[in-house]
Write a structure and sequence with these properties.
This protein has 725 residues and is of the alpha/beta class. It has 30 helices and 22 strands. It folds into 5 domains: 186 residues, Rossmann fold (3-Layer(aba) Sandwich), CATH 3.40.50; 73 residues, Orthogonal Bundle (Arc Repressor Mutant, subunit A); 184 residues, P-loop containing nucleotide triphosphate hydrolases (Rossmann fold), CATH 3.40.50; 159 residues, PCRA, domain 4 (Orthogonal Bundle), CATH 1.10.486; 55 residues, Thrombin, subunit H (Beta Barrel). The protein has a 7-stranded parallel beta sheet.
Length: 725
């Protein structure tokens, strides 16, 4: 093949990265600069031009969707299948290794992956078994502690309490959790990475084999790697492999999840002579938006430095709106969205971004009132939905009887007369005899449970055994279909005649479709199609969107927006204490991460960007008065156009004072005291509300009030009889 087709769509810097000599390479890829294109073309270049076997490449991405897209684009570029290319997420590749080398990893062959929800259930059961007060030792806090230690590569035996009684208890519970997982053959997400790292640490010959095999390592989103991920890559690279990593230190926004932006600099120390290529040409945003983003991020000191540019148009100025309160902010956003839609634009091309999920409520109310369809991005995903997890638990128990998390989830779902007391007896028996709940149930039902409970338990055990027999030999999608019906789940949710029950039935049927479209056998390991599908479901949980894309406005946090782009973007709630977040203001590292998050938010916009803030905001049940975000002041004034309210607003000459001894009083003539924008008032008929606008003067002045229950009303001030709250 002529090499030109591989390179002819690339700019100079992209070509420099793709054709880099076989030496460690760090590509600093700015937002919208084509990093995925570079990774794909690098793989194709190595295979087609450098003569590297696809089996000699290992590519790491951060989502399964990105891995699938990368594989598809490489195949399209080379016009040949590359099924032998190891490409996947850190968790996916670790799972593949552990399935292949389960014995060396110290795992049972049929070990089960548990997702975050199942892990939390396991931790709750552990605390109950140990009679630990979960109000003092919250399960989520213990889960966070365990996963955090694993992400650092630390087992319970590696930890020291340093004389701290609380830390001593957490370490002890971590140790008990490890024992419980070992007994049940359970592997959580953090364990996948830790166990894969230990696999190579404790088996040098196996490590040497993979070091010889994978001479080229391609890594996407390198700035998001945590300690154990980087250690795993460093081990695999050894002294001979050629790592090619792509990342952007200005888009590292997951420090709270263990990501370490320092790895970008550490990489250059660990691999002396690293070639650094910067991708700065942006293909997404207007020059005005890029100049604003560059100016904001330039205030961070700990960065490698780059300057995004485009050969496209300057574009429109960034619009800045100062709202009176959060409802006025929502009204403004909805109004501009209406204009956008009326001009023939798609609703799905508009996104509303915010720092905190709690901000979405008022925005959602505004969209509902305006009858503008919207979607909160990052809601429950398909494999995380309760009914799907129920079905998967049945399938897991059919495949692996000793899966305690699955047993406990479905033992009485649908309800079959197995109460909490009976389940607790099973737990106690399992703990006393160091066995699974399945074995405990069988033993207790034989001679220790009351007849009614024993019959219910035996019926459940027989149901699982019968489903296993009846599904043996069936195709995967037929197995799933048989189980969702034979288990009683379909009939159970059909009894709920509302929309929720109907939706859950539809979701269960969609699981059959997912199984039908699943292609087993790609992992090369000896696993049944069902086990492969269950592993796939566990790994996919939390990635794919649950609903098909429809034309609706997108609402999301700025963290969720990373990797996405929209022609129209609103950055809402740009106030100090909210964004940057209050807990980060006094922390230099935290403040720099907040600024990186702002940079991510700005660079999501392709054509039009609005920034809004409120002078007064009620959030988490409290009213607050805040200053505009410091990040707004960091945007050069020549790129900003302040948007004023459409009506002339009469601001107060002086603030109103409540009369002595009164918590509130009627508002007197406007000419005497004026009326404060954002003021909370009460109306005899409409109830409590907030003043948004004032028009005119004197007795005929009109007051725009947004009432909590009645919506926005325009009242003649002289006759409104408003009370000041």
């Amino acid at each position: 093949m002529d090499v030109t087709p591989i390179l002819d769509s690339l700019n100079d810097r992209q070509r420099e990265a793709v054709t880099a000599p076989p030496e460690p390479t760090l590509v600093i890829a700015g937002a919208g600069s084509g990093k995925t294109r570079v990774l794909v073309h690098r793989a194709a270049w190595l295979i087609d031009v450098e003569g590297v076997s696809p089996q000699g490449l290992l590519a790491v991405t951060f989502t399964n969707k990105a891995a699938a897209e990368m594989r598809h684009r490489i195949e399209a570029l080379l016009d040949m299948p590359v099924q032998h290319l190891w490409i996947g997420t850190f968790h996916g590749l670790a799972h593949r290794l552990l399935r292949r080398h389960w014995r060396e990893a110290g795992l049972p062959q049929n070990f089960q992956i548990i997702d975050s929800d199942d892990q939390l259930r396991l931790i709750k059961r552990l605390l109950r078994n140990l009679e630990v007060d979960d109000s003092r030792w919250p399960p989520k806090e213990l889960q966070w502690f365990i996963n955090g230690q694993k992400d650092e590569g630390l087992r319970a035996k590696n930890l020291h309490d340093d004389g701290d009684p609380q830390r001593r208890q957490m370490i002890s519970l971590y140790r008990e959790y490890e024992t419980l997982c070992e007994r049940g053959g359970l592997v959580d997400f953090a364990e996948l990475l830790l166990r894969a790292h230990e696999l190579w640490l404790h088996n040098p010959e196996l490590l040497a084999h993979y070091q010889r095999r994978f001479g080229h390592l391609l890594v996407d989103e390198f700035q998001d790697t945590n300690a154990i991920q980087y250690a795993w890559l460093r081990l695999l690279a050894g002294d001979a492999a050629v790592p090619f990593v792509v990342g952007d230190d200005d888009q590292s926004i997951y420090r709270w999840r263990g990501a370490r932006v320092e790895h970008i600099r550490q990489f250059q120390k660990d691999f002396p002579g690293t070639k650094v290529v910067k991708l700065e040409q942006n293909y997404r945003s207007t020059a005005t938006i890029l100049n604003a983003a560059n100016a904001v991020i330039a205030n961070n000191s700990s960065r490698m430095g780059k300057n995004l540019w485009t050969d496209g148009a300057d574009g429109e100025p960034i619009r800045l709106y100062a709202a009176y309160n959060e409802r006025d902010e929502a009204d403004f956003v909805v109004g501009r969205l209406r204009d956008w839609i009326d001009q023939g634009n798609l609703r799905a091309d508009a996104a509303i971004l915010y720092r905190s999920n709690a901000q979405s409520r008022v925005l959602e109310e505004g969209l509902i009132n305006a009858r503008i369809p919207y979607r909160v991005y990052g809601g429950l995903r398909f494999f995380e939905r309760a009914e799907i997890k129920d079905a998967l638990a049945y399938l897991r128990l059919i495949s692996h009887r000793d899966d305690d998390a699955s047993f406990e989830r479905i033992v009485n779902r649908p309800t079959r007369g197995i109460g909490a007391r009976t389940v607790e007896e099973m737990r106690q028996y399992a703990r006393a005899n160091a066995c699974s709940l399945w074995r405990a149930a069988g033993a207790l039902a034989s001679d220790q449970l009351a007849s009614r409970a024993a019959n219910a338990v035996l019926a459940f055990l027989h149901l699982i055994e019968r489903l296993a027999r009846e599904t043996a030999g069936l195709d995967l999608h037929e197995q799933v279909d048989h189980v969702i019906h034979g288990s009683g789940l379909i009939d159970f949710f059909k009894k709920d005649k509302g929309e929720k029950g109907e939706t859950r039935v539809e979701n269960l049927l969609e699981l059959v479709s997912a199984a039908k479209g699943f292609e087993p056998g790609l992992a090369e390991e000896e696993m049944s199609p069902l086990d492969e599908f269950l592993a796939h479901a566990a790994l996919e949980a939390g990635e794919g969107q649950a609903d098909a894309w429809e034309d609706c406005v997108q609402l999301m946090t700025m963290h969720s927006a990373k990797g996405l782009e929209f022609p129209l973007v609103f950055l809402c709630g740009m106030e100090d204490g909210l964004f940057p977040h209050q807990r980060s203001v006094a922390d230099p590292q935290g403040l720099e991460e907040e600024r990186r998050l702002c940079y991510v938010g700005i660079t999501r916009a392709k054509q039009v960007l609005y920034i809004t803030y409120a002078e007064q905001r009620r959030l988490h049940g409290m009213d607050s008065f805040a200053q505009p975000s410091r990040f707004i002041a960091e945007v050069p004034a020549e790129h900003v156009e302040e948007v004023r309210p459409r009506v002339q607003v009469a601001r107060p000459v002086r603030p109103m004072r409540p009369s002595a001894g009164a918590g509130r009083r009627p508002v007197d003539a406007a000419s005497e005291a004026g009326i404060r924008l954002g003021q909370r008032v009460r109306h005899r008929k409409f109830g409590d509300g907030v003043v948004l606008n004032c028009e005119g003067q004197g007795a005929h002045m009109q007051v725009h009030v947004n009432f909590e229950t009645a919506g926005t009303k325009i009242l003649v001030f002289q006759y409104a009889n408003l009370e000041l709250m």
